[in-house]
Amino acid sequence: MQEEAALLTHTESELRALMDRFSVTPRRSFGQHFVVDPNTVRRIARLSGAGPGDRVLEIGAGLGSLTLALAETGAAVRAVEVDRGLAAALREVVATAGAAEVEVVEADVSTLDLDCMLRGSPRWLLVANLPYNIATPLVLDLLRDAAAIETMVVMVQREAAERLAAPAGSRVRGVPSVLVERRGSARVVARVPASVFRPRPKVESAVARIERRQPAEGLALPADVETRFETLVRAGFGQRRKMLRRSLAALVTPEGFVAAAVDPASRPETLTLPQWVALARLPSP
Question: Among the four residues 7, 103, 140, 182, which has the most C-beta atoms within 10 Å?
Fold first, then answer.
């Protein structure tokens, strides 16, 4: 399997040979960009910490470069691919490589029954080269709905990775930053140049690692207040150039800002997670 994995991921010419063999072309509608550098996929596999006994969910597996790098670690991999042609090619690639611990699933992740997909283990890792057009909402959805996924290591557009990990006060902090912090901790662990992809994207990529965690003491919220929390965050950042007294005028009264100890002249990126939680706990005006 080691030798075959190197063959499949080693050079651009070998990737092109695979694409020709299976009559595959990257589809812009699916945001497909194939990695042609084996060192990159093996680095992502190492950063994930996956190993024997682990269960890994990969989304957007493509022609299997990262899939095989993950299989090399000894982990069991469930590789999801929505493109029918790529899924058929991936099954043959996996079989040729002798990667017995890889299961290929042809499906659209947005329509998957996550409980069914994550059957077989209470603990999963998500490791993926995510299409740019679905990366951030998918990460947020999985954090909210797939509690079995304890760790995510995802390659995304560099700006998206930085937003996922941005702390309070960062100029790039936004809705994803706060919603990720609500359920986990995120950091950028690697940068990836556009030169390792075919077709080459116009932007750089980065790898973000997200560790799921339970809300800190005093920050847990009932479901209805959790909904209000997200509504407040989205409203605040929806008009990020405005002070919160304006962007949240319909949701928080002047007295509410005082009660939550939040300066109404603040901009949304300056608020800490406990401050957003304090606002969410206020009664609706």
Answer: 182
